[in-house]
Design goal:
Mean pLDDT: 95
Strand order of the largest sheet: 8-7-6-5-9-10-11
Number of helices: 13
Distance between the termini: 47 Å
Low-confidence stretches: none
Number of strands: 11
Bound molecules: nicotinamide-adenine-dinucleotide
Largest sheet: 7 strands, mixed
Structural class: alpha/beta
Radius of gyration: 20 Å
Helix content: 40-55%
Order of helices and strands: HEHEEHEHHEHEEHEHEEHEHHHH
Length: 381
């Protein structure tokens, strides 16, 4: 399905926003420390990591948190490694990047193929070198070593807030809204559960091996139980089997890509039947598909807004680590909701004022804030 690279998509989105803003081409990153996830996946490339880092830069600026963007990646299939191999590889990788990371410098977090255990090993490797505990060097770590309440589900919770806000804006009911989610990992699985709790009907879900569909609704708990036994949601008896390609073209109200980049292209965007797309994954829509969705009047809540809940609570985690003072889960969720809802309104207003898509508006907002920081700091020496 994939046609262009994530880096081409990121550059094209930046061009769209820069044109609209008459941006000075000399602008570069001026906010920091930098922040981004570490990805373990067989298809990782330098270009992909650069694209993901660029999106992180705009994303942090869109939600107004004081970080620049970063990203890391290892070309590996983590599921093929034993726990011992995964730990040794992680600690070796962490050793290689020790000069780059640190609470004031660059703060990794989980992404595709990495999790809180991987973050714990990185934190321990860094702390061992420093000679004392440095929880603020990574986020998305277990609560036992300085993680934040609510971080595990933060990205999914942000996606839920964005879905509810979009349904409301378009005058659509939340109750029984038909939702399809691609990906059943940290983000996709959490999104399925949270939207089901809100009364939405989850009609389609997939993972890397394939998907299931039931127009009457799927049980998130049943999916979890099946996945725990079978290692995949494929074969779940509560629905009919569909491929990932078919899943993206199912009849639904809300379609949420929550797996990998490049899922919507010029080849399939015409066949998407969803009323709304909310991008939980990074870079799921290629620029040609974006134009098709805009022409067809399908609103797309862009990744740099829709999935910003994760980095927002990562920011909360870092703040808590630096202060060694921890907040309750309700406090975390409430602060997250306020930031996400305000960011949604900021992006929506700009998109309406300038007659541009939500993606171009979000990119303009993010790039504009980075440009302002750049201009305010000035150039030295
Ligand atoms: P994860 O590894 O926990 O889960 C990924 C899911 O996608 C799994 O169910 C996997 O089977 C499925 N998948 C993988 N390749 C697929 C393919 N080719 N087709 C269909 N399904 C496929 O990863 P995650 O942390 O949930 O991340 C998912 C997406 O969300 C990524 O794009 C990531 O960059 C983005 N994201 C994650 C976070 C976070 O906090 N974890 C924050 C922001 C954005």
């Amino acid at each position: 399905m994939k046609t262009g690279s994530a880096w081409d998509s990121a550059l094209s989105q930046l061009d769209d926003a820069a044109r609209e803003m008459n941006l000075d081409p000399g602008v570069h990153v001026a906010r920091g420390p930098s922040k981004g996830g570490i990805r373990y996946h067989p298809a990782v490339t330098l270009e992909e990591v650069k694209a993901l880092a660029m999106w992180m830069t705009w994303k942090c600026a869109v939600v107004g948190i004081p970080f620049g963007g970063a990203k890391g990646g290892v070309v590996v299939e983590p599921r093929a490694l034993s726990p011992g191999e995964l730990q040794r590889m992680t600690r070796r990788y962490a050793s290689e990047i020790l000069p780059l990371i640190g609470p004031e410098r660059d703060i990794p977090a989980p992404d595709l193929g990495t999790n809180e255990q991987v973050m714990a090993w990185i934190m321990d490797t860094y702390s061992t070198r420093e000679g004392y505990s440095v929880p603020g060097v990574v986020t998305g770590k277990p609560i036992a070593i300085g993680g934040s309440a609510g971080r595990n589900q933060a990205t999914a919770r942000g996606v839920m807030y964005m879905t509810l806000a979009t349904l409301k804006h378009h005058g659509m009911a939340v109750e029984d809204a038909r939702v399809v989610v691609q990906g059943f990992g940290n983000v996709g699985g959490g999104t399925v559960e949270l939207l089901h709790e809100q009364g939405c009907k989850i009609v389609g879900v997939s993972d890397v091996k394939g998907g299931v569909y039931n127009p009457e609704g799927l049980s998130p708990e049943g999916l979890r139980q099946h996945e725990a036994q079978a290692g995949t949601i494929v074969g779940f008896e509560g629905g009919d089997e569909v491929t990932n390609d078919e899943l993206l073209e199912l009849e639904c109200d809300v379609l949420i890509p929550a797996a990998i980049e490049g899922q919507f292209t010029h080849a399939n965007a015409d066949r998407v039947k969803a009323s709304i797309i909310v991008e939980a994954a990074n870079g799921p829509t290629e620029p040609e598909a974006d134009h098709i969705f805009a022409d067809r009047g399908i609103p797309v809540v862009p990744d740099i807004l829709a999935n910003a809940g994760g980095v927002t609570v990562s920011y909360f985690e870092w703040v808590q680590d630096l202060q060694a003072y921890y907040w309750s889960e309700d406090e975390v969720n409430d602060r997250l909701r306020k930031i996400m809802e305000q960011s949604y309104v900021d992006v929506l207003r700009l998109s309406e004022d300038r007659h541009v898509t939500m993606r171009t508006a979000a990119t303009m907002l993010g790039v504009g804030r980075v440009a302002e920081a750049h201009a305010t700091r000035g150039l030295y020496p």
